């Protein structure tokens, strides 16, 4: 499921990859409410007997108040099991700064009394850096609900 409906370029690449991986794409078009799309997709997935719904909010900037408000709404309305921050390993400590700002923005823009924050991280683009331990080490002092290492190439 992709919920970034503002940028036209965000609407097309997933079709290519979804077809290759047998992942069904739930898409409702351009300029729609992300929280509503996620709610529809989750209902659709339940009706189809799917085990997992991955909601990709693509390219949110922590300093963009309207996008962070929409993200906080999406999380509050849909109560996901897990909220993950996806960052690039190649940015190093900047990813930690992004994560901290994301959590702050989620807290500031949430409609809930107790805002839901990020549960964990996914680091991408490990193939672009030499010191993989250094990239992971940047996040050592942060506490998450759950930590899993899927694979590191």
From TrEMBL:
Membrane-topology descriptor: Peripheral membrane protein
Record-annotated SRP54-type proteins GTP-binding domain positions: 3-140
One Pfam family recorded for the sequence: SRP54
Swiss-Prot/TrEMBL GO biological process terms: SRP-dependent cotranslational protein targeting to membrane
GTP-binding among keywords: yes
Keywords in alphabetical order: GTP-binding, Membrane, Nucleotide-binding
InterPro entries assigned: P-loop_NTPase (IPR027417), SRP54_GTPase_dom (IPR000897)
Coiled coil: none
Name assigned to this protein: Signal recognition particle receptor alpha
Gene giving rise to this polypeptide: Srpra
């Amino acid at each position: 499921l992709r919920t970034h409906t503002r940028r036209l370029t965000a609407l097309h690449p997933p079709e290519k990859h979804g077809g290759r991986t047998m992942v069904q794409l739930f898409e409702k078009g351009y300029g729609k409410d992300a929280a509503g799309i996620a709610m529809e997709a989750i209902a659709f997935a339940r009706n189809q007997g799917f085990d997992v719904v991955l909601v990709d909010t693509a390219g949110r900037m922590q300093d963009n108040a309207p996008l962070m408000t929409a993200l906080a709404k999406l999380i509050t309305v849909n109560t996901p099991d897990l909220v993950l921050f996806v960052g690039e390993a190649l940015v190093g400590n900047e990813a930690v700064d992004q994560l901290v700002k994301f959590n702050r923005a989620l807290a500031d823009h949430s409609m809930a009394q107790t805002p839901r924050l990020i549960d964990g991280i996914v680091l991408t683009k490990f193939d672009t850096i030499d010191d993989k331990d250094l990239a992971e080490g940047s996040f050592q002092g942060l506490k998450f609900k759950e930590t899993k290492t899927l694979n590191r190439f």
